[in-house]
Amino acid sequence: MVLADLGRKINAALAQINKEPIIDEKVLDALLKEICHALLEADVNVRLVGNLRKNVRTTVNIQELAAGINKRKIIQKTVVDELCKLVDPGVEPYIPKRGKQNIIMFVGLQGSGKTTTCTKLAYYYQRKGWKTCLVCADTFRADPVQIAHEGVEKFKKEGFEIIIVDTSGRHKQEAELFEEMKQISTVVNPHNTIFVMDGTIGQAAEAQAKAFHETADIGSIIITKMDGHAKGGGAISAVAATHSPIIFIGTGEHIHDLEGFDARRFVSRMLGMGDISGLMETVQDLKLDQNKNLMKNLEQGIFTIRDMYEQFQNISKMGPLSKMMQMVPGMSELNLQGSDELGAQRIKRLMTIMDSMNETELDSDGKIFQQQPARILRVARGSGTSVQEVEELLVQHKSFQGMVKKFGGNKGILKGMGPGTDPSKMSPQKMQAKMAQMQKMLPRGMAGMDMNSLMRQMMGGGGGPGAPAMPDLSQMQNMMKQMGLGGGFPGGGGRR
Ligand SMILES: Nc1nc2c(ncn2[C@@H]2O[C@H](COP(=O)(O)OP(=O)(O)OP(=O)(O)O)[C@@H](O)[C@H]2O)c(=O)[nH]1
Prior knowledge:
The chain is α/β, with parallel strands linked by helices and 496 residues long.
């Protein structure tokens, strides 16, 4: 993601002031110049960048700051606050209400990713247990207004809670598009109109957002295509043009590639500081607390084969592992997109093997297979795999057990995240402590690595027992293996 470049540049500028012996006007000017330059390069609107510079200068008055006050900290905090303001209009988005009918209308230009995003959003709510449906008024036929109206009325009668209306962006004339949008809006009377914007459009974003804002009562924004080469800065201007909050960003073409948006978390992730509360929410979404046995086991550092099976089931529902990894402080710079397919395929394969295990085996810690190797042959035959693959699964399980001991247990990261914990209510101190704890758990020497060669090493299947030892990379590979990613399986590949 190109935003990571922006984050890196801002980070470097912020870090630079730590090296300056004296913080004076000159240092502040140089810092602001660097930051503004980076923002402009990322296509953030010139006026917004100018505002940011002015606001920082107003808030941080070097002359008036008393001696002894930590000027560096004040400058850094002010810059982060201003970056957050860029993407946060200070307006609360519409929150759907349970048990009610929430009509959500999508608008946006052709190709912005509307239809894809409607589907992702419908799936997002469905996964969370809402009765959800889609009205496809995104049609070539001449009667989209009627289709939208009839569709919404039908689903209202049937008691759907989330009714998403997709509209068309295929018009030769902008005026026609806006007229149709108005007519559909009148007949479906949406609770929330979501403006979908392509994250790659750069400086054109502001004018486009303004035009939509003047016609439709835009309630929220979703920015798509924030994977790949989106500079993203242009789309940020949409917030200022519409005074509407970004609620999600699209980060790929798959149904899971929709991420909730929160200004502070976004900036924190962009600056490589991780997104602990996002990670905690994701972990909570795994509904560990509904599985009392697992929670109890984790706290004691126990992890049976069945636990692994259930976690794979949950993870498959949650979407790509790379999304979770990017929330870990220091991991955001790793572009793990390509490994998702591989991870998903691998998980499926491993689950097939576990499907052929009996109750005793599933509830065991895996040692039973070493004691009675005939079981391995039986499972391999039953699952249509090979002895080697079953053995690989057992190795995988063992490394997960190690991970659970590290992350779980009394001092683990999962401690305090049991049933009823709400990460959004966690105190900043506790959040900070968790973050520091996670950072300590990361493999040594990750910072400053050549990411390309790291990716080559991880995905190239060069790892696994027997591979030449690489001090930093082997640790990284281990971690990736433990998370179920990377080509590090012994004899990688197997039958697929
Ligand atoms: N990489 C990436 N591609 C996306 C994302 N969202 C949508 N796309 C792709 O963008 C293209 C256009 O998406 P659509 O959903 O058809 O766009 P639309 O706005 O509905 O377009 P019309 O139906 O023509 O109005 C498709 O190829 C999608 O797969 C995203 O977040 N990332």
